[in-house]
Design goal:
single chain; 3-stranded antiparallel beta sheet; binds zinc ion; 5 helices; alpha+beta; about 20% strand
Length: about 170
């Protein structure tokens, strides 16, 4: 299996890196970090917990904001992460990811666009409660924010009033 050491991805075709197109590939080593999947914050924390439990070294790197539609569903905008694991642990990791439902049964790592399909599936079943919870939590957070702003403004106005009454009164 060929490997691009710059992008830390496997080049399955063996001709060029699927990420940067570089042809400077080398044979992969067991301890090379390899991109296993791209996940949003929620999935990333699931993956992290599952890998920690199995004692697999892993690394997550933020790679940009999540899909804008997630905001429309009342979710907080989340960041996407690239998850890297050592090549030697890759098969084991794929099994774990399939086990927690992050990877498809075919075991191929998912590009970003497949993820939205999976989110559609999720919305129909198990994560509905989670979505509702997040919606309620963000509504409460918003109310708290409003309350803090109002309280701060009040304090500010009182402070200014007392400063003026000290000056002129
Ligand atoms: Zn590359």
């Amino acid at each position: 299996m060929c490997y691009c050491s710059k992008c830390q991805v496997l080049a399955k075709t063996g001709v060029a890196c699927p990420s940067c197109g570089s042809k400077k590939l080398r044979e992969v080593q067991a301890n090379d970090p390899v991109l296993i999947c791209t996940a949003d914050e929620l999935k990333c924390s699931m993956i992290r917990a599952a890998f920690d439990e199995s004692g697999i070294p892993h690394e997550e790197r933020m790679c940009g904001p999540g899909a804008p539609p997630s905001v429309l569903y009342g979710r907080m905008p989340s960041s996407l992460y690239h998850v890297f694991v050592p090549y030697g642990e890759m098969e084991h990791c794929e099994e774990i990811l399939i086990g927690i439902g992050v990877l498809g049964e075919n075991g191929t790592s998912k590009p970003d666009k497949v993820q939205t399909q999976e989110e559609d599936l999720e919305s129909g079943s198990m994560s509905r409660r989670k979505r509702i919870f997040v919606r309620i939590a963000s509504a409460i957070a918003f109310l708290i924010l409003v309350w803090v702003v109002v309280t701060l403004a009040d304090t500010c106005i009182n402070f200014i009033k007392s400063a003026f009454s000290n000056l002129y009164g």
